[in-house]
Amino acid sequence: MSSLTWSGRLLGATIPLAASLLAAPVLAQSPVVPLTQSDAVSRALGVADWRATGEGRRDAARAAADGVRRFDNPSVEMRRGSLNGPAEDETEWEVEAVQTVDLTGRRSSLRRAAEAEADAVELDVLRADQERAAEVRRAWVGCAAASEKAVAARDFHSRLVGVERIVQARTDAGDVAIYDLRRMRVEVRTAEADAAVADAEVGAACAELAVLTDVRGARAAGPLRAPTPTDGAALDRPDVGARERRLAAAGQQVSAADRSRLPEVEVGVGWKRVETLGFEADGPQFTIGLTLPLFDHGSARVRQARAEERAAAADLVLARREAEGEVAAASARVDGMLTALAAASATREDADRLGSIAQAAYEAGEGDVTELVDAYRAAHAADLFIIELTGRANLAVIELDLARGVNP
Fold it and tell me: Which of 22, 210, 216, 285 is such that its CA lies 20 to 30 A from the CA of 10?
């Protein structure tokens, strides 16, 4: 493989610049796959491992709720006893099934608590999807901004190449000093290096997008445009809803703890057979029993459940305040970014004309090469600033959507 290397001297230092052709074979190995922002979000949320994580959490929570039944499993007992006496032996056979009956409603409260926790997990998974969607959108904006900066850098280099030809012609004609030509050569090679760096930054900026979407060579499709905030200021965040459901679950745990202080009833049904004095007798038998709270009154469980309920209530209040603060901050940031972007965009037309005006003046002998270079650099800086503000405005809107709980 052949390469082209140019060396220029700037401020006494020799700067070797490798030609951008060296990177072409590497880029060719990874074909570019353009993705719109919505496509990128859909692909990221559809990654098998990510989907399996959410489904596993939901299924586990629902299974835990289903595991709290109205009744415990019954127990079956079989007993045999015998008595040896001077007159006759006596033998007894007995089999009995015992079932605990929840007359207090404790298990019903536990089931409702588990169902509320399952609802909270469902909302947690939804919030995780929202956060992942926001992460993908940030990566898409970063990729798009880097791509547009690379395009702007290449365009700037192309403009300077054209200006270099003009300066070369005037130098050959003896209209200007050789300084002008040397100055333009320095600017052109510097712009060429900047364009190469910008191209490299595209790959680095788009790497996160490729990882999140599981698409090798993913790139942002389409230009980076000024964002439009989502209408409505309603706060509907799943993470706040999850805390509400956990507060409800804590309330059910308090109810279950209170009811656990009451005696539990056990009902038994069985069959008994007695053999004695040559006679046999058998028949059904019924038993009923109570658990007596003599040693464990359940007061500790009640205190624990009530403390957890107070903590859940306080956590919900804090979450609501934090969410409102995040929305207010994000809204202010969006307003500021959009205002700044509008002001910067209003100067685009004037910035685009700077180079042509300075070039016309230079060709007419009314300006020097420094003014010409400064004009093109000012126009290029204005383009980069608009791209930067557009990216930051998009990021601000993403944060606002996430703060409001907008679904992907």
Answer: 22
